[in-house]
## 1
Amino acid sequence: QVQLVESGGGLVQPGGSLRLSCVASGNIYSAYGMAWFRQAPGKQRELVASIDKTGHTNYAGSVQDRFTISRDNAKNTVSLQMNSLKVEDTAVYFCNLNQFATDYWGQGTQVTVSS
């Protein structure tokens, strides 16, 4: 089994920044992808950003140039630096690890952008 624990959510004003972190533990092997998803009330969960083992990244168009995903393979962590936050970024953010075609999820962390 794989466990994911997120941290770093909170309340921030529009234009502000937050950094989310996720630590993975358990049966983790060498080749896996990590990502951040989010789910706003009444909406489907959506991919925010992903990063593979080699560091190749992919971003949703709505966060391109504002968010940066990074990972530390030695520590099995993934982070999401969120800048220039907008009200529409408000959601529960979930850490995801994909290994051997199986998805593992964290419990989620609330990000609220409001003045």
## 2
Amino acid sequence: QVQLVESGGGLVQPGGSLRLSCAASGNMFRLYNMGWYRQPPGKQRDLVAVISSGGNTNYAESVKGRFFVSRDNAKNTAYLQMNNLQPEDTAVYYCAVPGTRWEGQGTQVTVSS
């Protein structure tokens, strides 16, 4: 069982930036692929970005060039740097280990002027 805790959400104006963090329990973090997902109000949850255990990354088309996923295995933490945020990025953001039930509780990101 892995526990994941997200932090870093909040209210930001359009064009602003936020960095989300996902802290993982245990000592196997370095072996896991890590995914960031988001669920806008009234919509389904979608994958935003993934970083493999080896550091390879993939992004949803809607965030390419604006969002950047990274990880620090020494800190058991994954990050999602979000730049040039737009109102359509408003959602609850979750981190998870893809293919498992391990996911965090989510952090709200609201982009509004």
